């Protein structure tokens, strides 16, 4: 495992010199949002923004790949200055083509849905105090107990548990204030969910998508559309929902604050989000 640290002045000078002679192979750079592009207060540092825009100006493709829903992803796309390209949302549940000339600035090119009822009923039995939110196939969010999060991108509509179970889901979120992330993960694994893909977050937070769907499946679709070879793929993330993406990429980079299980699958470990670890990785592409 390689440790990527912040470069000093000499390193930056050497990188600038190398840029003049390095072949300009177009890279596909897949970036997680929370804990990677922005810190856990939602702030994107000037260094990250500057490095990302330099990568775009160099002709590389930046693909935002996040657990966030579309509405919460688009502001990040705007901050980065991406006018054309792709974004993978809902942990691979929704993939969009970005084009500033379109009426909404994007079009959905892939949406993966599933029946949430079996998972919901199993989870309610195992985690009776948990809260639930669901993104449906029209981009609406339904929630129990006024459950709301910034990652939804829209205001959630309160519904009964049965109304939620009868919906068609793109993404199902489960949150518990009574369990640790570790206890939560053990309870979920004990349930033996079938027909869905799930990942447990930093807190007692669970994201569920359709079976076989992950950030990796979404960015592979994008890679095929862009016609970029696997040898030119880079991915950076910090969460358990980034594991498949880091394994997929030719160069997988875990952020410094990532759990050990995420670092273990990465090719490199960068500095943490509060130390602008992503900016260092991005500058290495220039």
Produce the secondary structure layout.
Elements: E1 2-3, H1 9-21, E2 28-31, H2 46-57, E3 61-65, H3 70-80, E4 84-89, E5 94-99, E6 106-111, H4 117-126, E7 131-136, E8 141-143, E9 157-158, H5 161-165, E10 169-175, H6 181-191, E11 196-200, E12 205-210, H7 215-226, E13 233-237, H8 243-248, E14 251-254, H9 260-263, E15 268-269, H10 277-283
Parallel strand pairs: 1-15, 2-3, 2-13, 3-4, 8-9, 13-14, 14-15
Antiparallel strand pairs: 4-5, 5-6, 7-8, 7-10, 10-12, 11-12
Helix pairs in contact: 2-10
Quick take:
This protein has 286 residues and is of the alpha/beta class. It has 10 helices and 15 strands. The chain starts with a strand and ends with a helix.
Keywords:
9-stranded mixed sheet; disordered N terminus; 10 helices; 32% helix; single chain; globular; alpha/beta
* Strands, count: 15
Molecular shape: globular
User: What helical percentage do the residues reach?
Assistant: 25-40%
Major β-sheet profile: 9 strands, mixed
Strand order of the largest sheet: 1-15-14-13-2-3-4-5-6
Question: Which class do the helix and strand fractions yield?
Answer: alpha/beta
- Cα-atom Rg, whole angstroms? 19 Å
- Mean pLDDT, all residues: 86
Strand content: 15-25%
Number of helices: 10
Output the helix-strand order.
Answer: EHEHEHEEEHEEEHEHEEHEHEHEH
N-to-C span = 22 Å
Uncertain spans: 1-23
Explain what you see.
With 286 residues, this protein is an alpha/beta fold. 32% of the residues lie in helices and 24% in strands. It has a nine-stranded mixed beta sheet with strand order 1-15-14-13-2-3-4-5-6, with helices on both faces. A six-stranded mixed beta sheet has the order 9-8-7-10-12-11, covered by helices on one side. The radius of gyration is 19 Å and the shape is globular.
């Amino acid at each position: 495992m390689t440790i990527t640290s912040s470069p000093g002045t000499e390193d930056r000078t050497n990188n600038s010199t190398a840029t003049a002679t390095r072949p300009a192979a177009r890279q596909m750079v897949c970036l997680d949002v929370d804990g990677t592009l922005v810190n856990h207060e939602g702030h994107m540092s000037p260094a990250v923004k500057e490095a990302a825009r330099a990568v775009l100006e160099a002709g590389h493709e930046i693909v935002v790949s996040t657990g966030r829903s579309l509405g919460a992803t688009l502001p990040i796309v705007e901050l980065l200055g991406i006018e054309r390209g792709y974004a993978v949302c809902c942990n691979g549940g929704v993939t969009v083509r970005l084009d500033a000339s379109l009426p909404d600035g994007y079009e959905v090119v892939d949406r993966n849905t599933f029946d949430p009822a079996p998972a919901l009923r199993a989870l309610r039995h195992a985690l009776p105090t948990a809260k639930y939110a669901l993104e449906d196939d029209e981009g609406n969010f339904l929630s129990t107990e006024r459950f709301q999060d910034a990652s939804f991108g829209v205001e959630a509509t309160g519904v009964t548990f049965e109304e939620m179970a009868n919906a068609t889901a793109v993404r199902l979120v489960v949150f518990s204030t009574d369990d640790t992330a570790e206890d939560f993960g053990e309870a979920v694994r004990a349930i033996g969910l079938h027909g869905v893909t799930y990942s447990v977050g930093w807190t007692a937070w669970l994201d569920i998508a359709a079976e076989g769907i992950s950030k990796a499946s979404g960015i592979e679709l994008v890679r095929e559309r862009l016609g970029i070879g696997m040898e030119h793929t880079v991915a950076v993330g910090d969460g358990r929902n980034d594991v498949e993406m880091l394994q997929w990429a030719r160069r997988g980079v875990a952020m410094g604050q990532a759990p050990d299980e995420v670092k273990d699958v990465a090719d490199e470990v960068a500095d943490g989000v509060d130390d602008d670890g992503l900016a260092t990785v991005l500058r290495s592409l220039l």
